[in-house]
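Hi L.,

As promised, PTS system mannose/fructose/sorbose family IID component:
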Amino acid sequence: MRTTSNVVGQGRAMVLSTAPVIEKYYQDDEAKKEALTRHASEYINTNQTMYGLLAGIACAMEKERAEKGNVEPGTITSVIASLMGPLAGIGDSFFFNCVRVIVAGIAIGIAADGNLLGPLLFVALFGFGLLALKYVLFMTGYRTGTSLIDQASESGIISMLMEVAGILGAMMVGVLIASNIKINIALAPVVNGAEINIQGILDNVMPGLLSLVLWWGSYKALQKGLTPVKLIFIIMGGCILLSLVGIL
């Protein structure tokens, strides 16, 4: 999710990203000031990883304007504004909803046994891995300009990647729910001398049904504004209470 602080941060980052190119290729101080001011006033809201590609394209266009003068300032601003949405869609679907979930699932599985490698693996792959990818995307955008995005849009690759990433991310969420959320009903009432295994009945209906219900309820609670910290304490308190009365 991209908050207001992220938007402000990305606007400032664009100034820092384009400043070396502007300083190197613009000869007139007034032109440098105009270029930096233009980027400082931009509204930028896109995926953090895909921002590298956007910044690279902006630097390429600034270089083109400084060397040949055939790129208007409004064109640079318009290109950045038009690419924010598509790049955000790709980045959020693939990196946030897909890659992050997969890496977190692997790391959680390792950390569940008390292995310190779990969180270190997550930081290395999702943290430093995406940091390196940002650099690669920046250099790609700087070398290719807008041609890369145009080709990807025309070929339909962008929409296909977004759909595939969304499906894979949803599958991984399901795997994480089934493997990491365990709810077992301990209550087994005896009726006419026969013990009723409630957990067994639920498993016959749908294995992991209570885990799915808990996840869905938590998701809806977060959507309605309940903070994650409060939700954690509510779940912990509920589990303790239900265990004391013999239900869990």
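The chain has two domains: 4-84+106-148, 182-244.

Thanks again for sending the construct details.

K.
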